[in-house]
Specification:
By secondary structure, this protein is α/β, with parallel strands linked by helices. Helices cover 34% and strands 22% of the residues. The protein has two domains: 96 residues, no CATH class; 146 residues, Rossmann fold, CATH 3.40.50.720. The protein is built from eight helices and eleven strands. A six-stranded parallel beta sheet has the order 8-7-6-9-10-11, covered by helices on one side. A five-stranded antiparallel beta sheet has the order 3-2-1-5-4, sandwiched between helices. Strand 10, helix 7 and strand 11 form a beta-alpha-beta unit. Helix 3 crosses helix 8.
């Protein structure tokens, strides 16, 4: 039996998104039985096997769907002749589970709203990366210790681009509307699950006009970001943003 627990631990330490495929039921003649496992990465690399041939092929297809939808699934594979694949005649049922899929929030701006949002989201699934070049703000004592702080210019952080995938949520709450727009323009070409920017409807109309024709998918942007709870203090705005982030993460909108 291969060391799938060790592989999952290695992937956990690398924060690598993966799908764990497990045979949960088999009837008749099948290449692998209950408990067989394989681990699939987003690029199609896999470790272990659930039987090779047709089971492996369809397990990889199902894993790709899991990555696309960012949720687990179950599937039933009748091992009958399918096109080019010979088969042994039994049936296998698979359980596919996303692992290391906790969302990361990339929060641009460590001002009053940004700091409040860090506090409000403490204890939720979000891993928070706070980005701000201003030393006195990024090092504010009220920011929870679990927040990963990046004291650098926003464009330097975005250029690294290793953070962009379907687990990535972005909230833009900088000290300047001009900077907000610049961050948004740099973020949008990258793969993300959610992009939100603080501002009024009038501000958003202006940003749309400025960025029109640049080939950016502006329809994916949530602006004004947050649910309208009627509040206007930094803490109330942070609560409204956190509410929308969590609703989006849990598939409520």
């Amino acid at each position: 039996m291969w060391d799938w627990i060790g592989k999952l631990d290695e992937l956990r330490r690398q924060n690598q998104l993966a799908v764990l495929v497990t045979v949960i039921k088999s009837t008749g003649s099948t290449p692998r039985k209950h408990g067989a496992k394989m681990v699939v990465l987003p690029d199609g690399t896999f470790f272990g096997t659930v039987g090779g041939g047709a089971p492996e092929y369809y397990a990889l297809e199902d894993a790709r769907n899991c990555f696309a939808q960012m949720q687990g699934s179950t599937s039933k594979i009748p091992l009958q002749q399918r096109g080019e694949f010979p088969a042994c005649g039994g049936t296998m049922e698979l359980y596919l589970e996303l692992v290391n899929n906790n969302p990361s929030l990339y929060l641009f701006g460590a001002g009053h709203i940004g700091q409040s949002l860090c506090r409000v989201l403490e204890g939720t699934p979000f891993r928070i990366h706070l980005v701000d070049e201003r030393e006195e703000w990024i090092n504010a004592p009220g920011i929870p210790s679990t927040v990963m702080r990046h004291q650098c210019r926003w464009n330097e952080f975005i250029e690294k681009a290793v953070w962009c995938d379907q687990r990535s949520f972005v909230a833009i709450v900088t000290f300047s509307g001009t900077v907000d727009q610049q961050v948004l323009e740099e973020v949008l070409p990258h793969p993300t699950r959610f992009v939100g920017m603080i501002g009024s409807k009038a501000k958003w109309a202006g940003v749309q006009k400025n960025l029109d024709g640049k080939g950016l998918d502006l329809a994916k942007v949530h602006c004004p970001v947050g649910h309208d709870n009627g509040g206007g203090s930094p803490q109330e705005i942070a609560i409204s943003i956190a509410s929308q982030l969590l609703a989006h993460y849990y598939g409520r909108e």
